[in-house]
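Researcher: Structure for this, please.
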Amino acid sequence: MNHLPVLPIVLPMFMGALLLLIARSQMSVKRSLSLGATILQIPLALILMSQAGEGIGVYAAGNWVPPFGIVLVVDRLAALMLLITAVLAGGAILYALRGDDGLGRNFHALFQFQLMGINGAFLTGDLFNLFVFFEILLIASYALLLHGAGSARVRAGLHYVLLNLFGSALFLIAVGTLYGVTGTLNMADLAVKIAEVPAVDAPLVGAAGMLLLVVFGLKAAIFPLYFWLPKAYSAASAPVAALFAVMTKVGLYSILRVYTLMFGEDAGMLAFMAQDWLWPIALVTIVLGAIGALAASSLNGLVAYLVVVSVGTLLAGISLGTQEALSATLYYLMHTTWISGGLFLFAGIISRMRGPRFGARLVPGPDMPNSVMLSGLFFVAAVSVAGMPPLSGFVGKLLLLSAVGTGALAAWLYAVVLGSSLITLVALSRAGSTLFWRRDAATDAGEPLDPLRMLAMLLLLASSPLLVYFAAPVLEYLDATAAQLLNPNEYIQQVLSTQPFALGGQP
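Model: Predicted structure, token format:
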């Protein structure tokens, strides 16, 4: 039996527990263990991507076959999300090693538990365990958000946890309703049962499906459920905010998974039940995120609103529902996750170099060393995140706009995406000119530039030109991923046909 699918969950779980047990050990020991476990996620994700390319892998925990027990499913999409998370976490942990991990207790243990929750959400094959991993995410992210204390983080954390507890309550109601009607929570089995649900029960199942959309929308930070994100992300420490760049993608992943698998083409009278809602919500999210970015008073807040813009753009691609649109969406998802994470780390570097008086606020500050180099890097990052050629942001948006075709939908998407790109470019230009060219000569700079923090940021920002250079093989994988999503029968058959294994390893 192949045990690799469970390792992205088990590895951070045991490492987090170990780090709690040795909490009083030297920081160097904890850093080494945490760094090793985090970096190991990258080759593990690459191996799982290779295996997913050959076929969908199913892991029945405890040898309980579906639809009973816990099942983990590694398809192309899940493996891709594992890689995105692993690379982002690698950059965040490298940055944290230079002192951010020492601002509070048990940073590295919480970091590992956060990875456990994220990876588990991507791998789980049933709704109840998706809820469980959401709760692990909530607990770990709340503790990480408060890391370093401060009134701003406490306020943002309280707002964050209260909204997510409300979402958890709705999730349980939806899960309970679906189980009461269908008798199962395995997503593959639910796909079969929902397609056969009698007309009398269809409204109840539809209501549960819409509750799930609200829950996933809250996690993804879509309109009108995004108001928690700017404050939470801008208040968090730089490595925590960088890791949080993938948190919204957990919600978007859940929308993509549930509404292509359970409420897709074969769901009978409940087919595509969310499509009519996703399109207008996506456009409004893009517009409001762009306006927020233009009004941001700090670099952290600006990047947080750019995350909201990216969420809307990704949701627009998901709502189109075609293979070309989903492939473009996944490409843009890779780009925006890594670049947003890199920009959060960049904001942390700028805040330290400008000193506690100015931080990352968009006001004239002291003359920073290496300002020419930093301004050049900011320019490259701004070009990428705004979607200007020749970097990956441009390629992602071009692919998405090409996939929409012609007609009213195309007109709306062109106007909103291009308009938001212009507003984003204006906001980033204003931020760059303020940070690097406007001076307050009466003040001194803060900390010098740290090489390791710089390396962590560069590793994430380098993903933009690399995604362009390797666009052909990347898009080939993403096209196959999109095709697999739109053909859920393979997923369903592979999961439901899983057989128990004997002690000797033979089925």
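Researcher: Any notable elements?
Model: The radius of gyration is 22 Å. The longest strand covers residues 57-60.
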